[in-house]
Amino acid sequence: VTLNKLRLNHNSKEWLTAPKLKFVSFQGSNGTYNLGNLFVENGTVTIDTNNLPPLLTIFSTGSQYKLHGLDYSGNLTVQSGSDGQELKLTDLRFQVNNLDKQKISEKNFGLTGLAGKKGELKAQGTFSLNPVKGVIDLQFSRIPLSLFSKYYIQKPLLINSGTVIKGQGKMSFPSWRYTGSLGFNQTAIGFK
Q1: Cα separation of 91 and 78, whole Å?
Q2: Cα separation, 49 vs 149, whole angstroms
Q3: Are 158 and 145 contacting, i.e. CB atoms less than 8 angstroms apart?
Q4: How large is the average pLDDT for residues 44-68?
Q5: Are 109 and 137 in contact (CB under 8 A)?
Q6: What pLDDT is stored for residue 191 in this prediction?
Q7: pLDDT digits (tens, 9 = 90+) for 1-19
Q8: pLDDT bracket for residue 108 (50, 70, 90)
C-alpha cells in the first residue's frame, strides 16, 4: 500500500506530511491489522508531548493494530506544551524493527540526525512499543545546550551561555535516565 502526498492532522494541526508513505507486508483479517513495515521518505513530523496524535498510541497491549518496523527519513519537531518550547531534529534517519514483539533482546533501533546547525546525534539500542521502553547507546556532539536546557534547567544561567555539549552514554526510558559522559564547550557565563 502506497500513499502519496500524505498529510495527517490532529486537533486541526498538521503533525505529519510525507511525499510518500509505504506499507510493506500489510495484512488484515478478522478485525486485526498488521501494518507490517512502514517507510516514510522526506517526512516532516511535529508532535506535542502533552497531546500526542492517537495514531501514535494505537499499538498498545491488546490493540487490533500491530507494526513490525519503521523506516523514517526527514525532520522532527518536538513541542512541549503551550509555552512554545521545541526541539528540532533535521536530516533524521530513524529505523526500528521487531516492534510487534513484546521482548526485545538484541539491538533493533538506530537513529542519526542533526540538532541545531552543527550538532550531531547518533543512537542505537533496543526499543519496544508494547510497552514503550528502550535502552539506547547515545552519542552526541556540537549540540547547543539551549536546545535542551529549556526542558531541564529552570535557571537561565546556562541557557543563554552559548554552551555546546557533547557526550556518550546510555539512556533508558520511560524513566529517562542517562548514564555516561557529558562535556561542556564554549561556555561563557556572565552576570549583570
Answers
A1: 15
A2: 16
A3: yes
A4: 80
A5: no
A6: 52
A7: 899 999 999 888 899 999 9
A8: very high
b/e 130-168 (16+ beta carbons within 10 angstroms → b): beeebebbbbbbbbbbbbbbbeeeeeeebeebebbbbee
Choose the weakest-confidence range: 112-116, 127-131, 140-144, 177-181. 127-131
| DSSP per residue, the chain | -EEEEEEEEETTEEEEEEEEEEEES-EEETTEEE--EEEEEEEEEEEETTS--GGGGTTSTT-SEE--EEEEEEEEEEEEGGGTEEEEEEEEEEEE--TT-S---S--EEEEEEETTTEEEEEEEEEEETTEEEEEEEEEEEEETHHHHHHH--STTTTTS--EEEEEEEEEETTTEEEEEEEEES------
